[in-house]
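Wed. Picked up where I left off yesterday with NADP-dependent oxidoreductase domain-containing protein. The coffee machine is broken again, so keeping this brief.
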Amino acid sequence: MAAAAPATAAVRRMKLGSQGLEVSAQGLGCMGMSAFYGPPKPEADMVALIHHAVAAGVTHLDTSDMYGPHTNELLLGKALQGGVREKVEVATKFAVSFADGKVEIRGDPAYVRAACEGSLRRLGVDCVDLYYQHRVDKKVPIEVTIIHNQMRGSGESLHDNDRNKYIYLRYRGGLVLLDNSCGILKFSLRMGMKEHLPRFQPANLEKNAEIFERVNAMAARKGCTPSQLALAWVHHQGSDVCPIPGTTKIENFNQNVAALSVKLTPGEMTELESYASTDVVQGDRYAQTAGTWKDSETPPLSSWKAE
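Structure written out below (tokens, as returned):
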């Protein structure tokens, strides 16, 4: 494994979207602190990590009401106490309902409003800076789902199509890049963590491991880790793109921040992307039953009948 680039990079600020929201050029994903990647981590350690991130200049903090569910927002809410809220940009998400013991994707106004109010209570804030639609409710026109209430910006997570992209460009406050079809970010950051996913099934993993070895070799040439190289690739997508890597360890956080100092030439970008083109990566990120950007078409606005 390549050595890590030194943690000397300053965290610049950037504009996210068109409504004036300014965030740190790299965020902190809080999901793994409470859910999905093993048992919840000790609360005091995670609060300390969040405070360390803010002190380092990483002020864009990302969570969701489905992480836990709810426990990750409660954790972040505790970390925001004592004057921290005024120093950060808080992003959370809605759309995955767990009511009555069943999982349902919802984007109707009544649900979104209630979900937002619940997030505000758990976070202990009077507004959030960025509110994402975590998954698309295909029963509700995207225009209906969009709200501008108790938030400073709105965005979409892990879904896209031509019409929704147009709506985003016209109405939305900001979009954080969480995924890329080439798979390089997902593979190098999540290697070995999601064995039940298609990309990590034995036959696919063997092929994808070859990609990782090529990425690792480039990282060694660049004097950084594969994860830092992946983050650097995201940063080089444009000045309006903000990755939000998650971690539960201060050491890993520091390495992630150091990715800001990794520079890639156009030739290196082309080489890196060639390793993991869509026809090379084996297996999808999620099983076909999971709703993603590949399946997110919504009805026309004219079809909606207000309740």
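Quick read: The chain has a mean pLDDT of 83.
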